[in-house]
Amino acid sequence: MAEPGPIIAIVALIALLLAPPLTAQVQVRGVVKTHGVIAPSGPTSLNQYTHIWAFQPPLTPTSDNGYFATVYSNTASIDGVSVTLSWSSIETSQPSTTPCVPSDVCQQDPGSPQMYHTYSWTNYDSHAAISPVYEWISVPNKKVNLLVAGESAAAVNTSTPWYVTSPWWYDQFNPQQQDVLNAVNASCSTVPWTGTPVTASYGSGTVTVTSTGCCSGGNQSATIQNGDMVWASSMSTGCGTGTTGAQATVLGSSTNTFTYSAPSCSSSSPAVSFISASESWAVPYELPYMSALQAFWAAVVVHYGHNFTLNSTNYYPQLNYFRFGGSVGSEWYPYCTATLAGLTNGYGYTMSGWTNYYQQMGNYLQSLGPPWRIIHSINSAENPVNYVYATTEAGYAVGWSNAFGVRDGFGSQGLSALDQYNCTAPNSCTSCLTGGLCSASDWYPLFTNYKSRGVPLELQPESLSYPGDTDCSSPVCGVGSGNYSGDLPTFLYPFATGGTAPYSTATDVEIYWRDLSLAYDPTNYCSILAGACNPGSSISLDNELASRAQQFDFFSGGSGITGVGVGDNPTSCNPNGTQGNGDCAYRTNVDNAHGQH
User: What is the pLDDT of residues 467-520, one digit of tens each?
Assistant: First the structure.
């Protein structure tokens, strides 16, 4: 066989250079001649490069933002950040029948051919010093991962555009329904959408709710429109709506008030928690939601293509990987499956239906030709926990590839010290599917199974770490603000990133930005004042830490906790430190996890 000519070699080289690297950066000089396929080397037990990413850095103009920006710029072991793109912040108007040429600002809906979606990227393309993307991507030698979210998990869902759950939209589909779940209408404890608490007023069979910015006469920014379905719970008898909800009546041109019928309310001023359809979890595998989400994904792929430019600079080379979520955030967790199974409108839930949805959306994403690495989340279900979901999803993920033929990867956002406890001697989680101990979403044996394929393998702690808790027993580990994932050195290095059995081979780890500040910031994470951290040293605890005293314990030690921050202890782990007795354990462990293994 004749050697390939220079044009073929150049094309292959361009494809390699445009594809974001799987391992360390590659420099090519001189003439390149190839046989077969050029592919970047992937992680193996002997050749694995681990990247460290700051998860959800502070994006508002606060001291926290400035403090972390300094850490980020000056820390070589932090490769970049992972930032969420919120759908509702980009699709700010409902679709129309006005045709358009497909682009990043307009996409035809794949489910209803006459409808066209429009998008605005103003929120994410800001050139301001403090901006969701530019602030982090403009720092030299740093990259950004974008996590595409269609729904969010909190008291209310703020990421789904209002129109998706409206009759105007779902009546165009068959069946004409978009189901939603929240803490009022769903009979399971895992649903976090509890709504907004207010003190309402009652009279003549009507509850009147006043809540700033809740309502409008028909614009996308409001969460309650006239005639929308709302659910309300109340400790006062008869003042709620029950699981079936009630239609809201928005009072005239008010943006703050709506009413609903409650004929037998027992209080003239009931305490009420209300939530609308658009603030709830839209069942994502139903056609109205899925079709609108696909159009949004298409716009994302176009917008962040090779010509992605901010402030007159092309930043496409600084985009690293994307994670597209089919459920909450950039993940695929199926909520309240027992309630979903009871739906009677043609959307009754099954495990195969969920994994088929995962496969369908992954196939669609691949058809768009994304020009960056893709990492897919794997998630197991609950009641009972079923790890077959995750193993099925991982198998799908590694079968997809990006526009350059680089294979997609997968990962879990549930890493904790419990994984290390379950998966290393004397325990083992290799028999998870047959009743043995398990890692979160079964990631540990799945990483072992797929590492030889050279695909990216990503982990994220399930919540903020807790120094010294090596087995998730004190406190018990859990998901979300106010919960913890255990001791970071226990689960990060060498367990998750060591690369040689029994250690695992994560190529990418997203660490909460506050843990990275604890690891690397000697002065601003905790400015000590009277045995606690000065309020000015971390002004937005976000319920992640119980108190400033606990923040101090993590940094400098106390209450039975060894301080792990960058203090000025007798071992001089930070000779330039000015306060605290931290032993630099977090900094050392993150440094050890980062890089080649």
Answer: 999 999 999 999 887 899 999 999 999 999 999 888 999 999 999 999 999 999
Task: Give the strand pairing for 246-247 and 229-234.
Answer: antiparallel
pLDDT digits over 141-184, tens only? 999 999 999 999 999 999 999 999 999 999 999 999 999 999 99
* Residue of 103, 44, 166 whose CA lies nearest to 499: 44
Rounded CA separation 590/314 (Å): 30
The Cα-based distances of 132 to 4, 61, 138, 161, 524 in angstroms read 44, 11, 11, 19, 22
- What is the C-alpha separation between 94 and 219, in angstroms, rounded? 9
Beta bridge partners of 576: none
Distance CA 106, CA 282 (A): 23
Cis before 110? omega within 30: no
Rounded CA separation 517/539 (Å): 13
136-139 long-range CB contacts below 8 Å, 24 or more apart? 136/57, 136/72, 136/80, 136/81, 136/83, 137/80, 137/310, 137/315, 137/318, 137/319, 138/310, 138/311, 138/313, 138/315, 139/72, 139/73
